[in-house]
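One-letter codes give the sequence; the fold follows as tokens. An example follows:
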Amino acid sequence: MEPTSPPPAEATQPPRVLIADDNPQGVELLEAYLSASDYDIHTAADGEETLQQVSQWRPDLILLDVMMPKISGFEVCKRLRADPKTRDIAVLMITALDQPSDQDRAVDAGTDDFLTKPINRSELLLRVRSLLKSRQYKRELDRALAYIEEVERGAP
């Protein structure tokens, strides 16, 4: 049995970014900051809607406000990390909370990064690019490992 060639890289579609914030001005600001980049952007106004969007749309990155109605950003992040289907989605928590204990809670919930409001545009863009690039590298590594595994199984 001859191993198949490694799967091709995913079609070049723009990264999917979900902005989860109950404040319409906050959403508008984040959309404006990201508008110059080639991202497919969706929004959610509370924690429940965020989880629904994740389930239906599968974003690559979530810009997640902490203080949201129905389900907090901390709880949303915990649920994402607990589910094997969503645990690899990059999460950048954004909040007005600025105490070290808030950052500890964000880390405990499983966030990949944390930004405090007011948001600096350059810092946001740098972190978004970094998280998306990290996710892309992980997907490529997973594909390569799957290919190696297939080759090893097919070897005599």
